[in-house]
Amino acid sequence: MAGLEVLYTCVASSITSPQDAAVCFIHWEIVKSGYKCLGTGDEPIPGEKKSELLPASWNTNKELYTLRYRSNDDKSNLLLKAITVDSSLIFNLMVNADLYEGYKVTDLTVNVSDYVNEASLQSFEGVYKHTEDLVRRMKSSLLPAVKEEGSVRKERKDRFKDTQSQPDRDPLRIPSRGPPASYTPNWTDPLNPFAAGRADLDPFSGTTEGMIMDPLRAGFPRSGFDPSSGIPGVLPPGAVPPGARFDPFGPIGRHRPGPDPDHLPPPNYDDMFM
Fold it and tell me: Where in the sequence does UniProt note compositional bias of the Basic and acidic residues kind (predicted)?
């Protein structure tokens, strides 16, 4: 209770209700936990300074008390509101701190007559009762828990590890009944299976073809055409190296094949006057 008596003596002349005395006690416990008061109202006022005392006009409105606080290290802010409901006070505390990554709201409902003697408002020695119980309730329900910065960083790191360790999951996929089976592709080529096109750099190396889907060498029926022998009238023999990839760029042979029943007939082909 050290310091509370000095504070209460300073504001005793302005205390006119048990609710005022209860708010004064809550204010001092907040100051003891490492905060100082900035002023009244929801919005800051230019030029305001931190103080352990209650600001002027702190109890003008008996239905709603509003006080703002800032921590001694300037890392967090508090907004305290106390609402009078019959013989009770509902305390609502909003904490804005970097350690909480945003806002945190706590509340506490106090029956004023359980902790304040209305008949002794002007005497500090007899105004409060059962203060140990009120302090215990404040620490468990209202005041923000003190967290070391190192422990908060460890919690963030652990949460990051948990999110990284979870595998990607498709919510539309039917889950398997057994453990996931590992599949290793059977690469018959001793070379790197992802080196597509490597054989094109050296067609005389004797390795497999570089073309992934080669219609002349990928297991499809061969047409009997060897590009290394040349194309009469188009390419001389030897123009295409043996084993090199070659895409025919025209019909093979001197004569074009005639139309077959699958060809689309020309328009008006059956008109004898055309």
Answer: 146-172
- Residue 138 maps to a domain: yes
Residue 63 lies in a domain: yes
From the number of C-beta atoms within 10 Å of its C-beta (0-12, 13-18, 19+), residue 83 rates as middle
DSSP 179: P
Number of domains in the chain: 1
Look up the CATH number of the domain holding residue 48: 3.40.1000.30
**150 C-beta neighbours (distance < 10 Å), count:** 8
Is there a domain that residue 178 lies in?
A: no
Residue 154 has pLDDT above 80, yes or no: no
How big is the chain by its Cα radius of gyration, in Å?
Answer: 44
Question: If you average pLDDT over residues 42-63, what whole number do you get?
Answer: 92
- List CB contacts of 18: < 8 A, sequence separation 6 or more: 112, 113, 116, 118, 121
Cα–Cα distance measured from residue 50 to residue 39, given in angstroms and rounded to the nearest whole number: 8
Residue 86 domain flag: yes
Is the pLDDT at 204 greater than 80? The verdict is: no
DSSP string, 113-153: GGTB-GGGTT-HHHHB--HHHHHHHIIIIISPPP--HHHHH
**In whole angstroms, what is the distance from residue 158 CA to residue 152 CA?**
10
Q: Are 198 and 210 in contact (CB under 8 A)?
A: yes
Judged on CB neighbours under 10 Å (0-12, 13-18, 19+), 25 is buried
Length of the chain: 274
Pairing of strands 88-97, 102-111: antiparallel
What is the maximum span of the chain, computed from C-alpha positions, in angstroms?
127
For 90-120, how does the pLDDT look when each residue is reduced to its tens digit (9 = 90+)?
999 999 876 556 688 999 999 999 999 999 9
Q: How far apart are CA 248 and CA 240, in angstroms?
A: 11
